[in-house]
């Protein structure tokens, strides 16, 4: 869903007026190249639970049960994406 939204953004009428500097061109290539997109998706899948844990630590209410569950979730998601990461390394 995120990839579709990004593709619709870069192919939209308002994006045509954006100056196409090197950073914009590189970003477009990252979105359209499947291998690069899969790598970023795997990284975000692993990092998101850690960011969520930091938000829980900064909150004002007790969340120790949720904090204990997040490393297990992160480990499970990393195992799910192991095959994706192996394919990216071998490319």
What do these coordinates show?
The chain is an all-alpha fold and 91 residues long. It has 2 domains: 1-32, no CATH class; 42-91, no CATH class. It contains 6 helices and no strands. Helix 4 runs antiparallel to helix 5. It is flat and about 50 Å long. The two termini are 25 Å apart. The model has no long low-confidence stretch (mean pLDDT 76).
List the defining traits of the structure above.
single chain; 91 residues; mainly alpha; 2 domains; flat
Strand content: under 5%
Class from helix and strand fractions: mainly alpha
Global outline: flat
Percent of residues in helices = over 70%
Unreliable stretches (pLDDT < 50, length at least 5) are none
Distance between the termini: 25 Å
**Backbone CA Rg:** 17 Å
Count all strands and give the number: 0
Q: Can you give the mean pLDDT?
A: 76
- Main β-sheet description: none
Q: Helices and strands, in N-to-C order?
A: HHHHHH
Count of alpha and pi helical runs: 6
Number of domains: 2
Give a short synopsis of this structure.
The protein is an all-alpha fold and 91 residues long.
Summarize the SSE layout with pairings.
Blueprint lengths: L1 H9 L2 H4 L5 H11 L1 H24 L6 H17 L1 H9 L1
